[in-house]
Specification:
single chain, 8-stranded antiparallel sheet, two-stranded antiparallel sheet, 4 helices, 10 strands, 41% helix, 27% strand, rod-shaped
Length: 219
Protein backbone atom coordinates (compact mmCIF):
# COMPACT_ATOMS: atom_id res chain seq x y z
CA UNK A 1 0.00 0.00 0.00
CA UNK A 2 2.82 2.40 0.80
CA UNK A 3 4.47 1.67 -2.54
CA UNK A 4 1.24 2.34 -4.38
CA UNK A 5 0.73 5.65 -2.65
CA UNK A 6 4.24 6.79 -3.46
CA UNK A 7 3.83 5.76 -7.10
CA UNK A 8 0.52 7.63 -7.32
CA UNK A 9 2.06 10.79 -5.84
CA UNK A 10 4.98 10.64 -8.27
CA UNK A 11 2.53 10.21 -11.12
CA UNK A 12 0.60 13.30 -9.96
CA UNK A 13 3.81 15.31 -9.91
CA UNK A 14 4.61 14.27 -13.45
CA UNK A 15 1.12 15.08 -14.72
CA UNK A 16 1.08 18.62 -13.14
CA UNK A 17 1.76 21.37 -15.70
CA UNK A 18 5.06 23.12 -15.19
CA UNK A 19 3.47 26.52 -14.64
CA UNK A 20 1.29 25.13 -11.91
CA UNK A 21 4.13 23.87 -9.83
CA UNK A 22 3.72 25.24 -6.29
CA UNK A 23 5.58 28.57 -5.59
CA UNK A 24 6.70 29.42 -9.16
CA UNK A 25 3.92 31.95 -9.79
CA UNK A 26 4.79 33.76 -6.60
CA UNK A 27 8.44 33.89 -7.62
CA UNK A 28 7.50 35.39 -11.01
CA UNK A 29 5.33 37.98 -9.33
CA UNK A 30 8.14 38.90 -6.97
CA UNK A 31 10.55 39.28 -9.89
CA UNK A 32 8.04 41.39 -11.82
CA UNK A 33 7.36 43.63 -8.81
CA UNK A 34 11.08 44.03 -8.17
CA UNK A 35 11.58 45.14 -11.80
CA UNK A 36 8.75 47.66 -11.46
CA UNK A 37 10.24 49.03 -8.22
CA UNK A 38 13.63 49.44 -9.86
CA UNK A 39 12.02 51.21 -12.80
CA UNK A 40 10.12 53.57 -10.48
CA UNK A 41 13.31 54.30 -8.56
CA UNK A 42 15.13 55.15 -11.78
CA UNK A 43 12.32 57.50 -12.83
CA UNK A 44 12.24 59.21 -9.41
CA UNK A 45 16.02 59.54 -9.39
CA UNK A 46 16.00 61.03 -12.91
CA UNK A 47 13.33 63.55 -11.88
CA UNK A 48 15.34 64.45 -8.80
CA UNK A 49 18.49 65.07 -10.83
CA UNK A 50 16.52 67.13 -13.33
CA UNK A 51 15.08 69.23 -10.51
CA UNK A 52 18.55 69.82 -9.04
CA UNK A 53 19.87 70.97 -12.43
CA UNK A 54 16.93 73.33 -12.97
CA UNK A 55 17.28 74.84 -9.50
CA UNK A 56 21.03 75.22 -9.94
CA UNK A 57 20.53 76.86 -13.31
CA UNK A 58 17.95 79.29 -11.98
CA UNK A 59 20.06 79.99 -8.93
CA UNK A 60 23.09 80.82 -11.07
CA UNK A 61 21.09 83.18 -13.25
CA UNK A 62 19.59 84.87 -10.22
CA UNK A 63 23.01 85.25 -8.61
CA UNK A 64 24.43 86.74 -11.77
CA UNK A 65 21.48 89.13 -12.08
CA UNK A 66 21.76 90.20 -8.45
CA UNK A 67 25.50 90.69 -8.85
CA UNK A 68 24.98 92.93 -11.88
CA UNK A 69 22.35 94.94 -10.00
CA UNK A 70 24.72 95.23 -7.04
CA UNK A 71 27.46 96.53 -9.32
CA UNK A 72 25.04 99.02 -10.91
CA UNK A 73 23.87 100.15 -7.47
CA UNK A 74 27.48 100.54 -6.30
CA UNK A 75 28.35 102.54 -9.42
CA UNK A 76 25.32 104.79 -9.01
CA UNK A 77 26.06 105.22 -5.31
CA UNK A 78 29.69 106.10 -6.00
CA UNK A 79 28.67 108.63 -8.63
CA UNK A 80 26.02 110.09 -6.33
CA UNK A 81 28.54 110.31 -3.47
CA UNK A 82 30.95 112.16 -5.76
CA UNK A 83 28.23 114.60 -6.75
CA UNK A 84 27.10 115.13 -3.16
CA UNK A 85 30.69 115.62 -2.03
CA UNK A 86 31.39 118.12 -4.80
CA UNK A 87 28.15 120.03 -4.14
CA UNK A 88 29.00 121.00 -0.57
CA UNK A 89 28.55 124.68 0.18
CA UNK A 90 26.49 127.12 -1.88
CA UNK A 91 25.16 125.66 -5.12
CA UNK A 92 24.17 127.41 -8.35
CA UNK A 93 21.11 125.93 -10.03
CA UNK A 94 20.19 126.41 -13.69
CA UNK A 95 16.90 124.64 -14.43
CA UNK A 96 17.23 121.18 -12.89
CA UNK A 97 21.03 121.22 -13.13
CA UNK A 98 23.03 121.93 -9.99
CA UNK A 99 26.53 123.33 -10.37
CA UNK A 100 28.92 123.58 -7.44
CA UNK A 101 32.56 124.53 -7.17
CA UNK A 102 35.10 121.71 -6.99
CA UNK A 103 32.76 119.29 -8.78
CA UNK A 104 33.86 117.39 -11.89
CA UNK A 105 32.67 119.38 -14.90
CA UNK A 106 32.22 116.16 -16.88
CA UNK A 107 29.21 115.32 -14.69
CA UNK A 108 27.24 118.29 -16.07
CA UNK A 109 29.04 119.40 -19.24
CA UNK A 110 26.71 117.50 -21.57
CA UNK A 111 23.61 118.58 -19.62
CA UNK A 112 24.55 122.25 -19.92
CA UNK A 113 24.68 122.01 -23.69
CA UNK A 114 26.89 123.87 -26.16
CA UNK A 115 28.38 127.06 -24.65
CA UNK A 116 28.26 130.38 -26.47
CA UNK A 117 32.03 130.42 -26.32
CA UNK A 118 34.83 128.18 -25.09
CA UNK A 119 38.40 129.08 -24.20
CA UNK A 120 41.47 127.36 -22.75
CA UNK A 121 44.43 128.91 -20.99
CA UNK A 122 47.17 127.91 -18.52
CA UNK A 123 45.66 127.46 -15.08
CA UNK A 124 46.61 129.82 -12.26
CA UNK A 125 45.28 127.42 -9.61
CA UNK A 126 47.10 124.23 -10.64
CA UNK A 127 49.50 122.88 -13.19
CA UNK A 128 47.69 122.26 -16.45
CA UNK A 129 44.97 123.87 -18.54
CA UNK A 130 42.02 125.92 -17.33
CA UNK A 131 38.81 125.76 -19.37
CA UNK A 132 36.29 128.60 -19.61
CA UNK A 133 32.69 127.88 -20.63
CA UNK A 134 30.65 131.02 -21.36
CA UNK A 135 26.86 130.79 -21.59
CA UNK A 136 24.33 133.57 -22.13
CA UNK A 137 23.83 134.42 -18.45
CA UNK A 138 26.72 132.76 -16.62
CA UNK A 139 30.30 131.56 -16.95
CA UNK A 140 32.02 128.47 -15.56
CA UNK A 141 35.81 128.36 -15.12
CA UNK A 142 37.61 125.08 -14.38
CA UNK A 143 41.00 124.08 -13.01
CA UNK A 144 42.89 120.80 -13.56
CA UNK A 145 43.08 118.12 -10.89
CA UNK A 146 44.93 115.11 -12.26
CA UNK A 147 42.87 113.81 -15.17
CA UNK A 148 39.77 115.74 -14.09
CA UNK A 149 38.64 119.31 -14.69
CA UNK A 150 36.97 120.72 -11.59
CA UNK A 151 34.75 123.78 -11.36
CA UNK A 152 36.82 126.65 -9.98
CA UNK A 153 34.32 129.48 -10.24
CA UNK A 154 30.81 130.28 -11.44
CA UNK A 155 30.05 133.86 -12.46
CA UNK A 156 26.48 135.13 -12.88
CA UNK A 157 26.36 137.83 -15.58
CA UNK A 158 22.77 139.11 -15.60
CA UNK A 159 19.48 138.93 -13.72
CA UNK A 160 18.11 136.07 -15.83
CA UNK A 161 19.79 133.74 -13.34
CA UNK A 162 19.96 133.83 -9.55
CA UNK A 163 21.48 132.03 -6.60
CA UNK A 164 19.61 129.05 -5.18
CA UNK A 165 18.48 131.37 -2.39
CA UNK A 166 16.92 133.82 -4.89
CA UNK A 167 19.44 136.67 -5.16
CA UNK A 168 20.13 138.09 -8.63
CA UNK A 169 21.86 141.11 -10.17
CA UNK A 170 18.76 143.32 -9.95
CA UNK A 171 18.99 143.35 -6.13
CA UNK A 172 20.93 145.27 -3.51
CA UNK A 173 23.12 144.74 -0.47
CA UNK A 174 20.02 145.01 1.72
CA UNK A 175 18.50 142.01 -0.08
CA UNK A 176 21.72 140.03 0.43
CA UNK A 177 21.74 140.72 4.17
CA UNK A 178 18.06 139.78 4.46
CA UNK A 179 18.73 136.36 2.87
CA UNK A 180 22.26 135.44 3.99
CA UNK A 181 22.50 137.37 7.26
CA UNK A 182 24.99 139.76 8.80
CA UNK A 183 27.89 137.32 9.10
CA UNK A 184 29.34 138.06 5.65
CA UNK A 185 32.86 139.39 5.25
CA UNK A 186 33.11 142.83 3.63
CA UNK A 187 36.33 143.54 1.80
CA UNK A 188 36.55 146.52 -0.56
CA UNK A 189 33.50 146.45 -2.81
CA UNK A 190 32.71 142.75 -2.15
CA UNK A 191 30.60 140.94 0.40
CA UNK A 192 31.64 137.30 0.91
CA UNK A 193 29.96 134.34 2.58
CA UNK A 194 31.95 131.17 3.23
CA UNK A 195 30.48 127.71 3.58
CA UNK A 196 32.19 124.31 3.59
CA UNK A 197 35.45 125.82 2.34
CA UNK A 198 33.99 127.70 -0.66
CA UNK A 199 32.97 131.32 -1.09
CA UNK A 200 29.89 133.08 -2.43
CA UNK A 201 30.95 136.59 -3.41
CA UNK A 202 28.75 139.60 -4.24
CA UNK A 203 30.48 142.46 -6.06
CA UNK A 204 28.81 145.77 -5.24
CA UNK A 205 28.74 149.30 -6.65
CA UNK A 206 26.92 151.79 -4.43
CA UNK A 207 25.26 148.85 -2.65
CA UNK A 208 23.90 147.46 -5.91
CA UNK A 209 24.92 143.99 -7.05
CA UNK A 210 26.96 144.02 -10.27
CA UNK A 211 28.35 140.46 -10.13
CA UNK A 212 27.78 137.24 -8.23
CA UNK A 213 30.59 134.68 -8.06
CA UNK A 214 30.95 131.20 -6.58
CA UNK A 215 34.62 130.56 -5.85
CA UNK A 216 36.56 127.43 -4.97
CA UNK A 217 38.87 127.33 -1.97
CA UNK A 218 41.81 126.93 -4.37
CA UNK A 219 41.26 130.45 -5.75
Amino acid sequence: MEKLSAKWINKRKVLLPENNQPGKEQKERKVEWKMKKNKIRRIVWSLYLLGVLVVAGCGGSSTEEVSEKDYESDDQKTKQDQENQSQAGYVFQIGEIEVAVDMDISLIEEKLGEPDSYFEQPSCAAQGTARIFTYSSFEIDTYPDGEKDLVGSIILKDDNVATAEGIDLSMTKEDILAVYGENGKEEGNSLEYEKDGMKLCFILEEDKIVSIEYRSKVF
